[in-house]
Amino acid sequence: xxxxxxxxxILFVLIFSILALIxxxxxxxxxxxxxxxxxxxxxxxxxxxGAFLGPVFGAVTILLAEGMNxxxxxxxxxxxxxxxxxxxxxxxxxxxxxxxxxxxxxVPIVCMALFMLHPIGAQVWYYSVYWVIPLIGKIxxxxxxxxxLGATFTAHALxxxxxxxxxxxxxxxxxxxxxxxxxxxxxxxMGISVSYLIxxxxxxxxxxxxxxxxxxxxxxxxxTRGVFTSRN
Length: 232
Hints:
Distance between the termini: 26 Å
Oligomer: single chain
Largest sheet: 2 strands, antiparallel
Shape: globular
Radius of gyration: 18 Å
């Protein structure tokens, strides 16, 4: 445990949490079907924590950022609000688990079952077919875009089921969302991919200041190769 919870790792978890918190409070687009709620840059930035800090510490980072936001905003702490913290945690875990053996890709499949068991969800069951994408993303996990797409649809699956079971909805609303979801999640996947590329190359440029075995960097996406000295 001491080897895992080093000062350097805790420091980087805090740094990523603060950056995620900042992104959490920068609105990107309104959320259809809810009042006074918006998607934020958090959807672009949050999942990449799992790639740099590993799936577990990435998920912890997101939980910490969302917890700080709850404290700052002053939201009521109850079971429903706590459950609403999980979608991006699982997205970060998914994004950071490429090449690792785990069952995180099955989470959207469980969500499909829960969606179809609901009286409203059963009438628009085809909406949940989107959540097969994280499984495809696992198969094509070495492709950054599909990895990002799998992560954002993992968050979408959990968020949709929580929305379905906690807020009264109609079949018409879910049908209206179908084409919007495709565009919205494609945008998020591109945003996650770009955020990862920018962060990865920035960290490579300052890698002499980054402790080894704390932050995972990818030489595959090192666009500074030949300009900055790499550490093998």
